[in-house]
């Protein structure tokens, strides 16, 4: 029997387009292997394309990791961000989504994204996140791999950037502009059940690298029981939508029915069989 798995990104992908979900998690599986067939290898390539925006997000994670470890100021963090950006662009190690789908050259992408990188650094200096970088009372635990734990018979994955720990507070920090109450509920569940931290000591904060806003839901707004019920329903919907016999033979999923504006932005647009 297929394992029951939930993560925010899985559910978001499934709701956006069921065909994309299938291609991402099943049809492209094993495409990195030397003996993978041509089609699977091609799907793996498209699955791993990253946009310039996503590259900036990952770069910010790397820089903030160092900033918290070394207790940099926001200004030092901005300097490192620009330095790392320049080095990455000089090496041209990345194949961007925009190169494959929009015909942009590497230099065009670099020039177009430069302003976003500079702005991200400037925003960070004045953001609500900056004071956390030098707060001595916090011990920072970085999340290199998604947290994995069980909610009944469902495997839960959640991937906060870090946990900021002190004797009185336990803050899960996410790098996203989305206000995700379901993720906040899973943070609290993990802290209480796995780490044995009192619920009142657990807090979730969401940092938007584009605006510099740091948002934290009120304690009463995070409803674990309601979230657990919703997760169960979402996992059941996905399990019923993709039968095991389809997974076993890597058969193509039914026509997606996704709006054309979603299809045009999909990593699999060139290889998705829409008929």
List the keywords.
11 helices; three-stranded mixed β-sheet; 49% helix; globular; 275 residues; alpha/beta; 8 strands
What do these coordinates show?
The protein is of the alpha/beta class and 275 residues long. Among the domains are: 81 residues, no CATH class; 89 residues, no CATH class. Helices cover 49% and strands 13% of the residues. It contains 11 helices and 8 strands. The strands form 2 sheets. Strands 2-5-6-7-8 form a 5-stranded mixed beta sheet, sandwiched between helices. The chain has a 3-stranded mixed beta sheet with strand order 1-4-3. Strand 7 and strand 8 form a beta hairpin. Helix 4 packs across helix 5 and helix 5 runs antiparallel to helix 7. The longest helix has 21 residues. The protein is globular and about 55 Å long.
Strand order of the largest sheet: 2-5-6-7-8
Averaged pLDDT, please?
83
State the low-pLDDT regions, or none. Answer: none
For the largest beta-sheet, the strand count, sense and barrel status come to: 5 strands, mixed
Instruction: List the helices and strands in order.
Output: EHHHHHHHEEEEEHEEHHH
Beta-strand portion reads: 5-15%
**Number of helical elements:** 11
Helix content: 40-55%
Report how far the terminal alpha carbons are from each other: 29 Å
- How many E strands? 8
* Shape category: globular
Radius of gyration: 20 Å
Secondary-structure content class: alpha/beta
